[in-house]
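Is this the right way to post structure tokens for a design question? Let me know if I should format differently. Anyway, here goes:
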């Protein structure tokens, strides 16, 4: 259902950890799972600490783009940061969707830091039986 678009994803993820947080012009990658569940295709993105209003989902033709921004938490003036390992900034992921998915009826849900998108399998992609005609339905063409 998905076509892999980036064979160097793991290398890019490691480089992003070393370089630092993403920006809107150069976002960091976000981890995801993709699987088929019955007549739906499900894609789940890890976005801990991101508010629902900071998530942007776009579909253009068969290209899905998910962008999210983890913003710093407002702290009091007398707080001195001792350690900061949780990345802030922009995260993004683009996925090429197969033509067998119905991109007109996508459902999106966000719970416990996981964005879940559900794509119905298009009717034309579902298995179907073809009946074979016998007897009167066949004509012989004189030649």
């Amino acid at each position: 259902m998905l076509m892999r678009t980036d064979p160097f994803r793991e290398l890019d993820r490691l480089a992003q950890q070393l370089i630092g947080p993403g920006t809107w012009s150069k976002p960091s990658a976000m981890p995801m799972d993709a699987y088929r569940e019955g007549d739906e295709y499900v894609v789940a993105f890890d976005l801990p600490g991101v508010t629902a209003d900071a998530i942007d989902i776009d579909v253009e033709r068969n290209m899905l783009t998910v962008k999210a921004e983890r913003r710093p938490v407002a702290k009091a003036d007398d707080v001195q940061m001792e350690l900061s390992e949780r990345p802030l900034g922009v995260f993004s992921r683009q996925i090429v969707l197969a033509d067998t998915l119905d991109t007109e009826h996508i459902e999106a849900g966000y719970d416990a830091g996981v964005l879940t998108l559900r794509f119905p399998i298009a009717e034309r992609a579902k298995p179907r039986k073809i009946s074979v005609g016998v007897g009167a339905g066949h004509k012989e063409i004189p030649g």
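Format looks fine. Someone answered above. Worth noting: The mean pLDDT is 81. The helical segments are 9-19.
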